[in-house]
Design goal:
The longest helix has 14 residues, at 137-150. This protein has a single domain (2-193), classed as 3-Layer(aba) Sandwich (Rossmann fold), CATH 3.40.50. 30% of the residues lie in helices and 22% in strands. Helix 4 packs parallel to helix 5. The protein has helices at residues 11-14, 29-41, 118-125, 137-150, 167-179, 187-193, and strands spanning 2-7, 46-51, 85-88, 102-107, 129-135, 154-163, 183-185. A seven-stranded parallel beta sheet has the order 3-4-2-1-5-6-7, sandwiched between helices. It is of the alpha/beta class.
Length: 194
């Protein structure tokens, strides 16, 4: 089954006033929303990865404080949210996801595969084709895309619905991704192809 991966599109990354703003990232929100709503219209599940940090999270030794669970900065822009949705916390025990259009997958590290429930979730959804977009291209998007490739999925990165911090690093990531068998696409191509 096809699954869409909306990676870390949260206010602290997307808003110019966010705690860890990715310059220019607000420009991808409309395309992320379009992809999420397109998926919903086709019955395709959307897994939205979300940082959900504690007040004194170890990650804050390497990055400025951001996406603390329950804060406005940790939230997703309303236009990217779908109903019904379910939260999958990073603790043993995958909750019921039947009927959920959007699965909010919480994580405390850069790699979404650090959520202990992600492998079981992919199995439950019978995921074999994944469409990936969000922020940051050469960091969390990269880890999601390569993790999905490693899991045996066909993976597509939507190049006009991602945003990078370092253009050279992002270009290198996309080159390595295609060399590993990944596919590059655009929002229009995804929507037009159905």
């Amino acid at each position: 089954m096809r699954v869409f991966f909306d990676v870390d599109t949260q206010v602290d990354f997307l808003d110019p006033n966010g705690a860890l703003y990715v310059p220019g990232a607000e420009a991808v929100v409309e395309r992320v929303a379009a992809l999420n709503h397109f998926a919903a219209s086709r019955g395709i599940p959307v897994i939205s990865t979300m940082d959900a940090h504690t007040e004194n999270d170890p990650e804050f030794r390497d990055w400025p404080r951001h996406c603390v669970a329950g804060t406005p900065g940790q939230q997703k822009p309303p236009s990217t949210l779908l109903e019904p949705r379910v939260v999958v916390r990073n603790e043993p025990g995958l909750p019921a996801t039947m009927g959920a259009q959007q699965i909010l997958l919480e994580k405390q590290a850069l790699d979404c595969f650090t959520n202990v429930n992600l492998p079981a979730l992919l199995d439950r959804l019978k995921a074999d084709r994944c469409v990936v977009y969000g922020v940051v291209t050469e960091i969390c998007v990269e880890r999601a895309a390569f993790g999905l490739l490693k899991a045996g999925c066909r993976v597509e990165i939507v190049t006009d619905a991602v945003k990078e911090l370092d253009p050279l690093a992002a270009a290198a990531t996309l080159k390595e991704f295609t060399a590993a068998g990944g596919i590059l696409t655009t929002t229009e191509q995804v929507i037009t192809a159905g």
